[in-house]
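pasting for ref
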Amino acid sequence: MTSAEHVDVLIVGAGLSGVGAACRLQERLPGKSYAILEARDTIGGTWDLFRYPGIRSDSDMFTLGYPFRPWKDPKAIADGPSILAYVRETAAAYGIERHIRFGHRAVGASWSSADALWTVSTAHGATFTCRFLYLCSGYYDYAGGHVVDFPGRGEFAGDIVHPQQWPDELDYDGKQVVVIGSGATAVTLVPAMAPRAARVTMLQRSPSYIVARPGRDALADRIRALLPEHLAHRVVRGKNVVLGTFFFQLLRRLPDRASRTLRDRVAAQLPASIPVDPHFVPDYNPWDQRLCLVPDADLFQALRSGKADIVTDRIARFTPGGVLLESGRELPADVIVTATGLRLVAFGGITLTVDGREIEPGEQRAYKGMMFGGIPNLAWCVGYTNNSWTLRADLTSQYVCRLLEHLDRRGFVSCTPDAAGASSAGRPRPIVDLASGYIKRAAADLPKQGERRPWMMRQNYLLDLADMRFNRLEDGVMRFGRAESPVPA
């Protein structure tokens, strides 16, 4: 039997969050040993998994990028390959690769209070032990996206593709394409596929709010031309954080006015043949679901060109030659892209046990949006929904480093949010507090947040920045423990 590999910190996931966590750990705690378990055979996570045409960020790269490694590309809204290259270059620059164990999918983790140790098993039988377990694999299910079993699916004579499993060999040149969906993936695919396809139709059951913004940040370009690189990065990042927070609060506090403004801006960019109502009039308030970003108004350019169209209707069934709608209209199709959403999974699908007690993710309350009542020495990295993922991911990594420093300084071996405090935090709410379909489908299986701090996950970087960097670690909720017995080295 192969002996377990032991490290101080075990990170799960070598994507944007995991690489950032490793960089912070090396920076703050250079004496700590660590390893990264990566289920796939390469660095990049989501940005390597998704290969569909046009994949890009829906946040600006000055905040989606790392604060310690300036984004140098002139594109503020970047394409997937550029982001993937940035993550991999960062890993290379900081020497992260030698700590990654590729092809190691973590499937189980058990905590022993007697040993103050996590034991983590992988799918192919390897075992690791660690003092602290940091889950940085996000909440997307890498095994596959959400698939709708449309009636008649088996009758369709063409190709049916889900964006999460995009085949490299798919040929859509000169073909009729129907993209089913109205979210970020759909509004990305339509303008990306339109130049090569004969025609692309975005078929949506209900519309989303769409915002167009320039792909380059002109003010950021001027700032970067005037200031040294790292200072310019900090200034632009700060500017975008403040503006993003301001506009989010404005849209949430004035939903009626915000709705009208967003619709009016869309209407001004549509061709006369496409009315704003019903295609761009959602039945919810802005930020009840995430806004869809279209850089350089590329979706509207595709609609104006005549190579793309939008239809708002419900699907009756697939036919051999396309999609029959409940209105009776049939959309011809050679290729159907089912951009019907993602599947979410807690903790990367890892089965957790604490002293032999199995943890049910859906029953957990999140402390500061990252740790859980009664679960020692474990953090889950989850980003913002209203801003760049990395903003919160980096704050979480810095907080984890603060905790580890505190444990060492005070001679503790464990830190555990008090489970009793979680039960008094008010009614449970989804940790991802949006009304999107893919979130509602997974809500019961994901951890919850409460109504009061520290059991409430705020969507506000500025408030979280002060909390996670400066507030007391010994806050009366976090419990610190000393060794119950000799601990393995």
